[in-house]
Amino acid sequence: MTKSSRQSKILDIITNNDIETQEHLVFKLKQAGFDVTQATISRDIKELNIVKTLKNDLYVYTQLQDNNSVLSVKMHNLFKETVLSIDVANNLVVVKTLSNCGMSVTSVINEIKLPQSMGVFSSTDAVLIVTNSLENAKIVSEKLQSLIN
Asked: Which end of the chain is more exposed for a tag (fewer CB within 10 A), N or C?
């Protein structure tokens, strides 16, 4: 089977199933007739921009998307490697970053285009996201956390 058919099947599986681990994904692929290894799946996950997101109290694989476009792997890695913490304070989300990385993380956040965000402000080592409610701040925080996990 070809790489593109395997990757297409991976997207189909994670869209229609709650897949928590690479091992579970390998199992589902083998059930579908694809003889794959965990190492192959790991490479596919990176190429397809698949991340874990919180869904019904479980972290499951989903494809990282933004209005039908995929956040670049480099931007995703930059975010993942430079963010130290993400905290909610009332209607605010505070993202602490490595020194001198605040503006870069802000660029990633702006690329995601969070509809719950009223504004994004940055310093050299932090980003402040203003929302209009605690609920929206939690949604933003969960979306950003999914980029790290």
From this structure: C
